[in-house]
Amino acid sequence: MRATLKVARIIFYMVRAFECLLIKQYDTGMVILAENKRARFDYDILETFEVGIILKGHEVKSVKSKRMGLAGSRAIIRASARRSGTRSAAGEVFLVGSQIPAYQPMNVSPDYTADTTRKLLLTQDEIKYLVGALREGTSLIPLNVHLKGNLIKIELALARGKKKHDKRQAIKKRTIEREMQRE
């Protein structure tokens, strides 16, 4: 009797481990949690980066339940607060203007605000590249927030703002394509 229980347990754990491997191997699709819908209309996207974000526990639950807002948000680079020793400090990147409401409003601390500045995680080389690119009249705009495995990532775009006539041309082009599809 005991031998069959041991064999059954071993088989159970082997099947479970195999299922975990299958999920990791074939689950490569991104789950988009939030999207900045106006970004592609208001800006010309030059380059995109996938960056991490530092969140608190209840913020993670709120983002995973798709309650994050990116409208009007942007990323900024601030000079690093630490002293530059042997390596030159490029600075730190922060997300400004995004809203993450409390997961359970009655259970959160009273000093919590939904639109606090949050730190983004990039390598020093990426930050140095962005500092150089931002001098050319471009902006850092978040396009979407998605899950990569179990981690929350932000797709950040190096973008240049469109002029009013560019937006009008985009609208005309879209309407012409719609009319052609109807015919």
What does this entry show, briefly?
The protein is of the alpha+beta class.
Molecular structure report:
The protein has helices at 2-26, 39-42, 57-64, 124-134, 164-182, and strands spanning 31-35, 43-53, 74-78, 92-96, 118-121, 139-148, 151-161. It has one domain (29-182): Small Protein B, Chain: A (Beta Barrel), CATH 2.40.280. The chain has 5 helices and 7 strands. The chain has a 7-stranded antiparallel β-sheet with strand order 1-6-7-2-5-4-3. β6 (139-148) and β7 form a beta hairpin. The N and C termini lie far apart (73 Å). By secondary structure, the chain is an alpha+beta fold.
What's the average pLDDT? 81
Shape: extended
Kindly state the number of beta strands.
7
Number of helices: 5
Distance between the termini: 73 Å
Report the biggest beta sheet as strand number plus sense, adding barrel if it closes: 7 strands, antiparallel
CATH class: Mainly Beta
The CATH topology assignment is: Small Protein B, Chain: A
Runs with pLDDT <50, length 5+?
20-27
| Protein structure class | alpha+beta
CATH superfamily: Small protein B
Summarize the amount of helix as a percent range.
25-40%
- Would you list the SSEs in sequence order as H and E? HEHEHEEEHEEH
**In the CATH classification, which architecture applies?**
Beta Barrel
Strand content: 25-35%
The gyration radius over C-alpha positions equals 22 Å
Number of domains: 1
Question: What's the helix and strand layout?
Answer:
Layout: H1 2-26, E1 31-35, H2 39-42, E2 43-53, H3 57-64, E3 74-78, E4 92-96, E5 118-121, H4 124-134, E6 139-148, E7 151-161, H5 164-182
Antiparallel strand pairs: 1-6, 2-5, 2-7, 3-4, 4-5, 6-7
